Amino acid sequence: MSLLGHLSLWLAFLVGLWGAITGFVGGAQQRPDLQQSARNATLALFGALLVAVISLEVAIFRHDFSLQYVASRTSRNLPTFYLWSAMYSGQEGSLLFWAAVLSLFGAMTQLLTSRRHRAYLPYVAAITSLVATFFVSVMLFAPANPFQRAAFTPLDGSGMNPQLQNPGMVFHPPMLYLGYISITIPFAFAMAALLTKKLDADWLVAVRKWTIVSWLFLSIGLLIGMWWAYVELGWGGYWAWDPVENAALLPWLVMTAFLHSVMIQEKRGMLKKWNLALVIGAWLLSIFGTFLTRSGVIASVHSFTQSPVGYFFLAFLVAAAIASAIVYINRLPLLEAEATLESVVSREASFLFNNLLLIGLAFSVLWGTLYPIISEWVQGVKVTYGPPTFNFVNIPLGLVLLLLTGIGPLIAWRRASPANLRRQFAVPVTAGVFALLILLVAGMRDLGPLLAFTFGAFVFGTVFQEFARGARARHRQYGESTAFAVVQLLSRNRRRYGGYIVHIAIVLLFVGFAGMAFKTETEATLRPGESAELKGSDGHVYTFTHLGISQYNALNRQVTAALLDVRRDGKDIGRLRTEKRQHVDAFGNNTFEPSTEVGIMSGLRVDLYIVLAGLVNGTEQAVFRFTINPLVWWVWFGGFVLVIGGLIVLWPGGTAVAVRGSKASSVQAGYAVKLEAER
Amino acid sequence: MKAGTKFAIGAVLIVGSVGYLMAAGIRQTGQYFLTPSELAQRVSADPSFYDLGLKVGARVVPGTVSKETATQTLRFHITDGTVNYPVIFKGLPPDTFTDSVEVVVEGRLQKDGVIHATNVLAKCGSRYEAVPKA
Questions:
Q1: What is the architecture of the domain spanning B31-123?
Q2: Considering only CA atoms, which of A569, A586, A565 is closest in space to residue A577?
Q3: Has the ipTM of the complex gone over 0.95?
Q4: Band of the pLDDT at A299, cuts 50, 70, 90?
Q5: CA A129, CA A134: separation in Å to the nearest integer?
Q6: CB-based contact, B44 to chain A, within 8 Å
Q7: pLDDT tens per residue across span A492-551
Q8: Closest-CA residue to A630 (of A454, A449, A501, A455)
Q9: A556 at the B interface (CB within 8 A)?
Q10: Can you list the domains of chain A with their CATH numbers?
Q11: Cβ contact, residue pair B15, A235, below 8 Å
């Protein structure tokens, strides 16, 4: 199996190179034979990498410990569920996974892109093949080959890190990878548009779905990652501004900016340079993120790129940045805007501000992630840019962005009149002020959360008003019932109303984030029968009673579990268990440091979050950390709504939104609802 | 005033506040990240480094870890090979904390020469792979 895998990697390398060369040459010289060959190469590349993936999975499932990769990441007693994820749980396997998925996307692009956009395809084939070949070459030459044989074949593998033995970790990496990888497709189209000089809005139409696909996958990946950090790592939160998290957030922010500014190019022919720069930037950031997470730059900042894989990525990143910059600058004269900004009170301007904020946010996250390195170079001493700094910078920016989420949809394209503004803002502003007053009366005095909830209500008012007006217009015209009219709105204009659903999701996420400002925490050492009390921010007092410890062996671990009785204001509301797990191999030897299983009781208002820190001298006396996290549930619910909204936008069919040139788009936003809905 | 100019003012405001926030954020919340040798050097040159919030990255000296589970107090020594500092930490160490692991200690160096930690992070070179048996 390992020989087959090895050979297919080499085959993929050669085929990928061939695809890149024929694609570029065939595109430049307009030679149909080479173009066809490049197209076939993308399919062959996918075939070869699929064989490699299957070879590795077979080796993992057969416990073929003669392979270094299989021996160091799995063991005979690893649950089957996690054998699947072993494929991408380490450096080498995830490189293979990455290359294979990219080749799949590359092949799909060649097969699914409509005839109208044929002209871009040779270059797209060349670029997807080139990037995939780069990943294959890292495996072959770094080397980081998943089919590398071990020096000797152990009887059993060393097992998987227990922190990865969680359902979240089975789905989080592939989702994030899918997001990362799919950015390559818009990037390839952007470069193809630059190279072919076909720079009208055509390429945007060709990649519209792909940009939403990659944004959606990135979102899902980030959300599952947060959930995993919350339930598995046991420190009580879900976001720590860790470089690895930031690396995934960066392209997400840039893609979000692009999804908004692209509408301005479609409608008004503006921002061509900006949009291309965003797509190229998002892709470079995805490679940069890969470099960060693989090079060891973060794990120990002192040693810049210890592993050779890091050097490969750095070299590739620099080369790709230079190449795309040259092409981009070369074509700048062709990218003049067809219209100018008419008023600062217009949809265009509000989108531009939204873009600036998103990019500013991305820049501050990038700067903060690199700050330890930068400060060491510049000042000679390392200064950390920790979570407090990130929060200091990003919370204000995030709040302004939230406010703009509500403002943007209310302002007309081109120029909004005062009368139009009054008509549009009355309901949402009332909603916001109303929420603010209620919270002030209820006694909330913390500025950040106050603003988050106020702006959230404002955005909610905006979206509600948009749906209400659209539905009323349909009701008047067709006599549809309200519920049916809303469904029709959603299905007739998926992009617009799906987008509004995503806005609601963003509000829910902010509600959840703001809740963390009110978390309460205590630590206690309890004998069986003893209790600890903690007051939650929901006003209730929670009592945790330690019932006792049980110890037993499970499939691949020794478990120490504590059971606690939970009371709210004296009333019994259930039991929670929290565990310490010591993972062992088939011979009973310890494999990893003990890991913690958090006990979580999740509710709409608060989450009770209990961690067993340890036993006192092997007795049943145990140390616990109790945390009450308000509103965390709304983060996960918001994530769910976000995915639904994204899927609505993405769902095939529906009416295509007309691309710029329709001069009718100067209609005031409120009145445009009907027209938009009927398009 | 033309729309473009107004927009430019708005843009400058946004970019300016991002820049200001970043600079102010570092000034107010940034912390030095030092190795024990660097810390010793700085303290001897400038005594104001005592009682200053900072982070120290080093290795735990094997055999120096003592845990009092009842009071949740953890004592250990850290070193970078040349300079050695005792650390005292009240709280729960992370799962990955062991003898000889690489740690980042967040806290203040007091006049008594002990780092009073408010947070201890354990690093694991190969986070997602089994630790080779010693």
A1: Beta Barrel (2.40)
A2: A565
A3: no
A4: very low
A5: 8
A6: no
A7: 888 899 999 999 999 999 999 999 999 999 988 899 999 999 999 888 999 999 999 999
A8: A449
A9: no
A10: 1-160 (no CATH), 412-493+655-678 (no CATH), 520-633 (2.60.98)
A11: no
